[in-house]
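Before the break, one more example. Copy the sequence into your notebook; we will annotate it together after we see the structure.
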Amino acid sequence: MGGQPCFRGSRVPVQHLIDYIEGGSTLDEFLKDFPTVSRHQAIEVLRLGQEELIECVSRHMSVCPPA
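Here is what the structure looks like once it is written out:
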């Protein structure tokens, strides 16, 4: 897959999940279209992305702006 990170046990690039979410599709739609990816795997990728985003933002902002 050209070095792209894929879900373990499949040839589905993680980027496909991101593209689905960005395009307005649901997690269930993604999982239906890529049955070799488990719900647990997809949620774990999203969780890791969330943690990375929060860490990145916190490095660049000392205090969150008011909502």
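The radius of gyration is 14 Å. The chain has a mean pLDDT of 89. Try to locate both features in your own notes.
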